[in-house]
């Protein structure tokens, strides 16, 4: 859909599969287009590809730094904190006992999630000490060394939905994701709804996107039952397959227009 939108705008477009690319690690100029729209779903591939292509002179949307920051929830939270963007409290820990003790100190329930992950996978709510001990043990005794960090976040009692605002320099639209389950990812069964983005929500999403240095993003917002608005996560590769027919936000056209606008 993005390809079609670009071609309708008389753009010369080349499509490259990340699996087919073998790129020398040098500064020789990239022979493809001046603007690279990074749509790889792999964090590892997109981060490295963006970094390589930037050295080769391409303007990559999004940048390697933005992809790396958005793709790691700990780095995202640090960037938001540095810019004073409101978000649920969170902490990172590196040993099971220390993490359980901090959870006990802060109180239940809390949420734990992998620092790197998407689509609501491996996200769990911890309601008591037994669950905390079990989940922290799993976190630190399974996976590779890079997985042995715990990200624990404040549990937000949402009113049955969360909000996603699409930002491309400015907020251009959004969706509401409704679910009876506390995890409100469409990949986990949440139902997308139309959502007219109020100015206050748009400004917060724009602040969040600027904090992580991203061009095109989907900013996930949590609304408390008291009406407080918090930034939860920022997605660097905007997906819309499950929502575009319902929300009618013309994301392929908006992405195409943004890519044309950054062309040198």
Structural notes for this entry:
By secondary structure, the protein is of the alpha+beta class. It contains 9 helices and 11 strands. Helix 1 (2-8) crosses helix 9, helix 2 runs antiparallel to helix 3 (64-70) and helix 5 packs antiparallel against helix 6 (129-141). The longest helix has 14 residues, at 199-212. The mean pLDDT is 93. GO terms for molecular function: ligase activity.
Keywords:
264 residues, alpha+beta, 9 helices, 11 strands, ATP-grasp_RimK-type, ATP_grasp_subdomain_1, nucleotide-binding, ATP-grasp, ligase activity
Mean pLDDT: 93
Question: Taking strands numbered 1, 2, ... along the chain, how are they ordered across the largest sheet?
Answer: 9-8-7-10-11
Residue stretches low in confidence (pLDDT < 50, at least 5 long) are none
* Total E-strand runs: 11
- The gyration radius over C-alpha positions equals 19 Å
Count of DSSP-assigned helices: 9
Strand content bin: 15-25%
Distance between the termini: 23 Å
Characterize the biggest β-sheet: 5 strands, antiparallel
Shape estimate: globular
Q: In which range does the helix fraction lie? A: 25-40%
Pfam families: LysX_preATP_grasp, RimK
Keywords: ATP-binding, Ligase, Metal-binding, Nucleotide-binding
Protein name: RimK family alpha-L-glutamate ligase
GO molecular function, one term: ligase activity
